[in-house]
Design goal:
- The complex is a heterodimer of chains A (about 500) and B (about 475).
- With about 500 residues, chain A is α/β, with parallel strands linked by helices.
- Chain A has a single domain, classed as Amidase signature (AS) domain (Amidase signature (AS) enzymes, Alpha-Beta Complex), CATH 3.90.1300.10.
- Chain A has helices spanning about 10-20, 25-35, 50-65, 105-115, 155-165, 180-185, 220-230, 250-255, 265-270, 295-310, 325-340, 360-370, 375-385, 395-415, 440-445, 445-455, 485-495, and strands at about 45, 75-80, 115-120, 170-175, 190, 210-215, 280-285, 315-320, 420-425, 460-465, 470-480.
- In chain A, helix 14 packs across helix 16.
- In chain A, strand 2, helix 4 (about 105-115) and strand 3 form a beta-alpha-beta unit.
- Chain B has 3 domains: about 10-295, no CATH class; about 305-420, no CATH class; about 425-485, Arc Repressor Mutant, subunit A (Orthogonal Bundle), CATH 1.10.10.
- Helices cover about 40% and strands about 20% of the residues of chain B.
- In chain B, strands 1, 2, 3, 7, 8, 9, 12, 13, 14, 15 and 16 form an 11-stranded mixed sheet that branches.
- In chain B, helix 5 (about 305-320) packs across helix 6 (about 320-330) and helix 13 packs antiparallel against helix 14.
- Classes of the chains: A alpha/beta (about 500), B alpha+beta (about 475).
Chain lengths: ~500, ~475
Amino acid sequence: MSKELHQLGVAELAAQLAARDVSSVEVTQHLLARARQHSHLGAYLAFNDDAALAQARAADARLAAGERSPLLGVPLAHKDIFVTRDLPTTAGSKMLEHYRSPFDATVVAKLADAGMVNLGKLNCDEFAMGSGNDNSAYGPARNPWDAERIPGGSSGGSAAAVAARLVPAATGTDTGGSIRQPASLTGITGIKPTYGRCSRYGMVAFASSLDQAGPMARSALDCALLLSAMAGPDPDRDSTSLDRPTEDFAAGLIHSNTGAADATQASAAGQKDFNRLQGLRIGLPKEFFGEGCAAGVQAAIRTALAEFEKLGATLVDISLPRTELSIPVYYIIAPAEASSNLSRFDGVKFGHRAAQYTDLADMYQKSRSEGFGPEVQKRIMIGTYVLSHGYYDAYYLKAQQIRRLIAQDFQQAFTQCDVIAGPVSPTVAWKIGEKSEDPVANYLADIYTLSTSLAGLPGMSIPAGFGEHGMPVGLQLIGNYFKEAQLLGTAHQFQLATDWHTRAPQGF
Amino acid sequence: MSKTTTSLLVRGYEVVIGFETHAQLSTASKIFSRAPTAFGAEPNTQACAVDLALPGTLPVMNKGAVERAIQFGLAVGSHVAEQSVFARKNYFYPDLPKGYQISQFEIPVVQGGSVEFFLGEEKKSVRLVRAHLEEDAGKSLHEDFIGQSGIDLNRAGTPLLEIVTEPDMRSSAEAVAYAKELHKIVTWIGICDGNMQEGSFRCDANVSVRKPGAPLGTRREIKNLNSFKFMQQAIDFEIRWQIEQIEDGFAIQQATVLFDPDTGETRAMRTKEDAADYRYFPDPDLPPLVIGRDWVERVRSEMAELPRVMAARFVADYGLPEYDATTLTQSQAMAAYFEAVAKACGQPKLASNWVMGEISRRLNSGEASIETMPVSATQLGALIARIQDGTISNNAAKQVFDVLWGEGGDIDAIIEAKGLKQMNDSGALEAIIAEVIAANEKNVAEYRAGKDKAFNALVGQVMKASKGKANPAQATELLKKKLG
């Protein structure tokens, strides 16, 4: 074994497990110990060693019996927004401290059925509201590239854990960029699929029309392996899950050539092939390359785009004219839905209830004031306001109209290109506490990811080099509806030609 | 029969009433979860993770509830929307687990339609605004928990169809007649068990008064009327109260009121000032409810004959008056009973008279229900046939019916035993007629002078002399013959 166990990605680990070079129990024990060694990153919120080892033993038994499947025995960890039977689910909130779900989220159950071993639960912004993982009631998660910096959010614990090689892959959720942005800021790969690809059943809801689960890992191939197991219709539990057959996204990476003309055996072998993306048109929205994007980020993105050209792709200038509007639209729709989704946390049935109260109204007020952090309270208030009588038409309804126009802009753009590329975040990871006094700056940082979420399109972030302070920069790839295979394939070709995704932070 | 629509004024005021009715749909499981809907279980034993609103749970539409809404729409001649939208009605209450109720707001599934019924012999039609699907809340239990409240979420998520009328009713009697008709429709088509005590059929009445021709007055909504008796009492009290307020110079404040059956009075629960802002918005967890024409047509083809269609058929096929047809179609059982009697005796109008007369009288007195009553349709049909074939008179048939109801037995045996058979022997009858003619010379002379009344008196004498056993038709015929 040339690499240490924690350096192995999903596909590599699966190959070693399948070859019986290593057991799932060994990998599980190694990674549980490693996670504890690096607890200062604040990536994990909870472990259940017994449950994890039981799953690992079960996987080993299946392997010993000759069963082979792509994820069998490979460990992962879940963002603490997915409910789990074996572990508490807090959603990063004091409101759900010690909450234990009587059922597993569909995504959790599907990955368990695929034979994956759940190591534990990962830190996140409270109810997935935030872009720095500094809104967690359980302390911040830290960026392994610089522990003074945020790992991004809201899936910050997932990003930190994968980047620090604490786990080969993790689940995340993306409402306005919560998979792509932390992936970008920690130098890993993450994909938010088309809205409805993965069941939302068992995801603690933030904004129902935007929330979407996706994998975060160290390569497009690894993400493809996980997404194949996570996605699929769930008609009996989630009415918004798409009625589309499950796809093997990983098979597509090896056998096809991402929408470009012909596949070559060379791609499977991982050799450089300068024509692998021949014919692929990559749209560059001018709104993603204007001022407001840090020079170091721009430079890294330009270099990455040049690499795509070398692979045969054509760069096309396009426009997404309502990109700026996506910020106010998102910050109306998401809080509106959140204000309603979070009403169930009233101290009556589950979750935090104030110790002392005088009457019902007082119980509600105290329980919610104590249980919710400031960012969550702020968004509940914004959401309540925009849905109120007399404001609904001007805010919520107007935002929904613009949302449709934003989606139309993308459809217009996809007449000119196959995929859209640009930065994920206008800056590299900032220092913890740096933006907490400036909420508007926080919201502006979401500008490149929000429109994709509003349109329900698939989007991903892949490592594309380094920007300011030597911090990672992610390239965003946005596809049309259901084009995850094309996105993953495009990313895979880039990763065959580059090694950004293999870079590990120092000390990890 | 009066057909004029009279405006009923109460102390010079016109009464205006509109209804909102919550009919609990008879699905086995809840509207958005798979938990059972059975009534009366131990608290919180029929609430699943979705009903408890546990984090991560999502609603999934129960197609059975939609199907029942379609049935209702078809039954009252509504438009069944091709696409309707579920919305969240947001408010905090401990028995509302999600902090919002999933309902329909801007685009309901059932739009328009009307409910038609007789008020006495006057035909009425109340227009429906809409009927929408929604989930019920749980129950707060304020007894048995000293200083605290208990929450039972068994009812949470139970499917409801809220049926909303235009303010078309003009009296408490009309309102009750509407409610009874609506109750008939939902139980007839089987979408609701109609059990008012268990809350399966709950009415809210919006009541206002105005001077004739004036704009609509301010309304007060009487909530949760769960018996027809209380409904009438509550509305009557409310009308009196509102008129007195206005007469005393007070303006009516929009309010929600409750009826207290013990005092017979309504009292305000909350006024408009406390009205919540429900922050309705389309529920992002549920896609629009799409109902294809093929679905509607399938439901239509599988539906039992509707009461108004059946009534029209009774008019067309049996020649019944509309009033009879409507009355007989009060319930499926009643209508089926009538049809069986009519077929057994071949005399639909006589069958109708008997079912609406003797049968209804006994059922209304509470002696039995149509399912349990002792006289079968075959028996009643046979009894009517005995009238028709001249064996017994109508009056004699009532005596037979009494015996059938009370003790049962064979119709012909009862007729024999009670000596009720009509005198169909023309020889004996001719003898009686001869006696009557001889004894009533004055009447005979008057008849011959052209007075019809005198003839009727002679028939009466014949009936009397025969102790009622003469067949009146035969007696008339023979008398005419004898008198030339």
